[in-house]
User: Fold this.
Amino acid sequence: MFYTFSATGVVKLLNEHYGLTVTAKELEGYDEANFYVKDEQGNAWICKIAGESQHPAFLDAQVRILEHLAQGATKGRFQQVVRNLNDEPVTRLAMPEELYYLRLYTWLEGQPVVTVKGTRDLYTSWGSFLGKMDKALENFSHPAMHREIRWDLAHALDARDQLPCIKDPEKKRLAAYFLLQFETEVLPLWHRLRKAYIHNDANDYNILVQDDLVSGLIDFGDMVYTQLVNNVAIACTYAMLEAADPMEAAVAVVKGYHEAYPLTQEETDLLYYLVAARLCISVTTSAEKAAAGSDNEFHFITENGAWKLLFHLITINPLAMQQAFRTACGFPPVIDNAADYTPLLAERRAHIGRNLSISYKEPLKIVRGALQYLYDDKGRTFIDCVNNPCHVGHCHPVVVKALQQQAARLNTNTRYLHDHLVDYANQLIATLPPSLEVCYFTNSGSEANDLAIRMSRHYTQQKDVIVLDHAYHGTSTVAMELSPYKFDGKGGFGKPEHTHKALNPDMYRGPYRADDPQAGEKYAADVSKIIEGLKEQGRGVAAYICETLLGVGGQIPLPPGYLKAVYAAVRAAGGVCIADEVQVGFGRVGDAFWGFELQEVTPDIVVLGKPIGNGHPLAAVVTTRAIADAFNNGMEYFNTFGGNPVSMATGLAVLNVIREEGLQEHARVTGNYFMEGLRRLKEKHAIIGDVRGHGFFIGAELVRDRNTLEPAVPEIDVVVEAMKQRGFLLSTDGPLHNVLKIKPPMVFNKANTDALLAHLDEVLSSL
Assistant:
């Protein structure tokens, strides 16, 4: 567009229309041609040339606002408009290909803030300058500023249209998350906020500095009539971009602004989300420009910094930032650090079953989730290292939107036809071996395991079930009867007659260890022994059920060849092989989508739960046609909520996210990286006896002695509590409660891994 205008051409235009004799040098610009011009006496100006895309009325608004600011307290701090020889503020240039508009402004001295080191005084001055400007504009108006532009935070959600241009799944997910938060937290209050005519782009290139104080502001090309607080949010965003302490920089800006032009408490409470929204507009715009092949460096000038700040922002609890802004403005605190949970705990004890446990010595009150992060009511942020039901991340925007939208349309039972039911069933079975082709939907893994056992008993006309010692399969009555972890534990009822415990195939502390290449077959032989014992009693096997990596059994991968031998023996006896994938499935193990694939077997029934709905109550049983036909014996199977449209929409969204974001491969690569780091810690700390797992299913067993394998209890509890204090939520597992279990949301990244390993190293060193 601007190739017509050379520096030489601009010199001629300024002489012709302004009577000036100058030299000119071209400057970079976003959507206008810009030239620095200077005469022999040292007077300097900036010449701006816009095309027809800039409406004359809006160019007039830029002139009027500068003329308005040339008066009163803001006099001398903004550029002055230079009129042409015809006393016009804008010069029309009729070129053959297009009509152009030339404006000339005085040059404003000062360095762009991006070129100087940020200090608290500078950031406070930044805010103060904007506050005085906005106060001066209280009685300004111009109809051309009532417009729609991408950079107006009021239209932040339009950035969703550019999300597909972001190719990195992690970055796209992060931007989408913050846009969802804007929709959730900001939009309901948007209509109540003050509106004003604002500059809308007080960035680190437009803010000028002299002697560590803000001296001026240039470039009114993005000005708009919108919410007043947006001006503060934008300033905070760019102050934070390169600051050593981003939150401190933002607080200083807010403090300076508030002292010059008071904010409301409601405005300050939204700044966290508004800063994030501005960053989202920036990165999506850069992505769109890149996709279009732009080579204008100005289009990408803040891209790297914006991404860095977005990744930092999600680690900040929004309450912490709200508290900091409120303190800076003298508003009441949003966090009561002195408050304890005694009343809440008392209410819980009074009305909630007391055998519902609470994690950690000092309980956490979690109020928000953000992908792999959890925020508590005290303003603290925790990295979630163990919450595997939120498989693709807490509040994943794709899953949340799918659930919200379907809930707003319809939720009912499966006695009506609905596409989501068959769509999800088809997509789910596409991930499984062909023989697993019939789906039943339930609300929990416990319910699904209960149903799987019921189906196996219909099919085989037998009742006896073989489980692994220390196994856990749920909380229903039938599932409890399959769970030695429960029935052999405190308050347990002992092993039921029809349940039979096989050896836990633990290659670290079991009878057959990792150095035995036949360990899998030897552990499988114990199952065969149980089958033979049943035969001698004239009894058969209904089912063998096993997690395909053992969870409460100790985060244990099964020995090579184990399930192949067990399944062969069970099927030879007429039994059904059930794979419990409730904790393991949906790509968590990295090397495969399902845990049973690691053993190169195909179960007769697979049970799914936890990650299937990303925390939404959804589970499933998938089985063969033969078993399904046998189960169809005249008694209807109906589940009021199983397979409802909202659950199916949620399940579809989870599958799509796993596939589109490449989370299985991410789990493989990052999980291996994690285990390599743990093994390095094992070399340094004798308390780590074993590191094991696949992908994001990881266990680290702590022992006092690597020869006797004496469990490191209570040392492991000290480690878990210490890591919690450092912002990492871990838990313990295993028959001896000495295994650190690590099963984070699948979006857990290498930076999280590095941080956890560094802190774990320090904690173990302190023991």
